[in-house]
């Protein structure tokens, strides 16, 4: 099979796009705002609200709402991306998604039943995916190939920065839920207005004319057509395996600290989480920046992606060998380093293997299935491993194996070094 041609983003006749001075910092702000909402609501505000509504069934209700909303997000991101591609513009979708999320968060703060909370969170996932799909597509739209690693590194910093801010805001407003929801919604809406005001849409290909009606099967085939591309398919597989391995373990970290790790006297599992999370986030921020910059300087993507995925797999052995507080600190730091570098450089790699520039948002939305899909599956995989194989040692080993196979999936990619 011939090596597929990498199609660069469509640009004005003047040549390769040069990002405006404010574009990269504002992309960082937008992605940080998005992660602040996801982390603040998902880890603090939503569980607090559900516990107040259904204290006896809070675990089951939170799991049900989280699973349904994750399915909703996985399906809606590529749909929103395709609509953004068809319109030929990004900013209206960014602003619309941000403002709609603010309005829905205000309503969610007043919800008094589990059903209303579930409906509200699913709708917020929809509007946030409108925002996310358009923001994500700006990198292949506007950033030259030689700067993709740097841009992806800044985008990747949104997780440690936004996650920290979101959890801090949510923790301070947990007893005033509506205020917390409004503050996080205002952060997203404000970032949308900033990005669209100072970085206007650039000339792109003309919006696509409405296509003739197709059978549902043909529409789905066109929708997922990027997976027919050899390099994009392998990048998708590698991302999915890495994310599945990571979240299968991280999602159960509180239980691991309670049942598997020997903690120092007086240190509770929640207090230990409050220490481990910043350790992991700082390490993630460092590796995100360093990995992105070095991948640009050396014009190499695969080695950074493969090595970081392999490291993520190998460090899973640390809590197995040393199920102690020190072992968990070492694991958190190394796992953060590996995951941060992987996500930053892998995002740059994916933008270089997109089959068609005019479908960039749609195809990046398809890639998001490799992010969100494994997060839906991870709790079921982890539960089956822990109960079926007897404890958390097999969970670490399975998570590590998934990451190692994800590292191997990068090797067949041919069009990127």
UniProtKB/TrEMBL annotation:
Annotated Gene3D superfamilies: MFS general substrate transporter like domains (1.20.1250.20)
UniProtKB keywords: Membrane, Transmembrane, Transmembrane helix
Pfam families: MFS_1
Residue ranges that the Swiss-Prot or TrEMBL entry lists as coiled coil: none
InterPro entries hit by this protein: MFS, MFS_dom, MFS_trans_sf, Tet-R_TetA/multi-R_MdtG-like
Domain spans labelled Major facilitator superfamily (MFS) profile: 24-417
Compartments reported by the entry: Cell membrane
Protein name: MFS family permease
Organism the protein comes from: Streptomyces avidinii
């Amino acid at each position: 099979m011939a090596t597929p041609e990498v199609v660069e983003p469509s640009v004005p006749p003047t040549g390769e796009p040069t990002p405006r001075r404010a574009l990269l910092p504002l992309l960082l702000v937008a992605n940080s705002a998005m992660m602040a909402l996801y982390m603040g609501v998902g880890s603090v505000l939503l569980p607090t609200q559900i516990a107040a509504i259904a204290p006896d069934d809070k675990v089951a209700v939170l799991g049900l709402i989280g699973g349904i909303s994750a399915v909703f997000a996985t399906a809606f991101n590529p749909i929103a991306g395709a609509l953004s591609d068809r319109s030929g513009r990004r900013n209206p979708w960014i602003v619309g998604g941000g403002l709609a999320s603010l309005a829905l968060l205000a309503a969610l703060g007043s919800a008094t039943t589990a059903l209303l909370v579930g409906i509200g969170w699913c709708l917020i996932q929809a509007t946030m995916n409108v925002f996310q799909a358009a923001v994500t597509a700006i990198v292949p739209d506007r950033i030259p190939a030689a700067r993709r690693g740097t841009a992806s590194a800044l985008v990747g910093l949104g997780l440690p920065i936004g996650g920290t801010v979101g959890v801090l805001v949510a923790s301070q407003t947990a007893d005033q839920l509506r205020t917390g929801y409004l503050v996080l919604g205002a952060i997203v809406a404000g970032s949308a207005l900033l990005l669209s005001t100072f970085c206007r849409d650039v000339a792109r290909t003309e919006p696509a004319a409405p296509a003739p009606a197709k059978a549902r099967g043909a529409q789905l085939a066109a929708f997922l057509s990027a997976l027919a591309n050899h390099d994009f398919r392998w990048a998708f597989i590698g991302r999915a395996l890495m994310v599945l391995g990571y979240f299968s373990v991280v999602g159960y970290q509180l239980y691991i600290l309670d049942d598997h790790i020997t903690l120092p006297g007086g240190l509770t599992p929640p207090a230990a989480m409050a220490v481990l999370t910043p350790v992991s986030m700082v390490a993630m921020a460092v590796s995100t920046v360093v990995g992105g910059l070095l991948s640009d300087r050396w014009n190499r993507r695969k080695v950074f992606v493969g090595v970081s995925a392999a490291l993520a797999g190998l460090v899973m052995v640390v809590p197995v060998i040393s199920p102690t507080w020190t072992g968990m600190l070492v694991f958190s730091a190394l796992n953060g380093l590996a995951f941060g570098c992987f996500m930053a450089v892998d995002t740059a790699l994916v933008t270089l293997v997109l089959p068609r520039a005019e479908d960039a948002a749609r195809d990046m939305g398809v890639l998001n299935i490799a992010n969100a899909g494994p997060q839906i599956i991870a709790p079921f995989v982890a539960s089956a491993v822990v109960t079926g194989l007897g404890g958390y040692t097999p969970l670490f080993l399975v998570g590590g194996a998934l990451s190692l196979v994800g590292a191997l999936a990068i090797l067949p990619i041919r069009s990127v070094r």
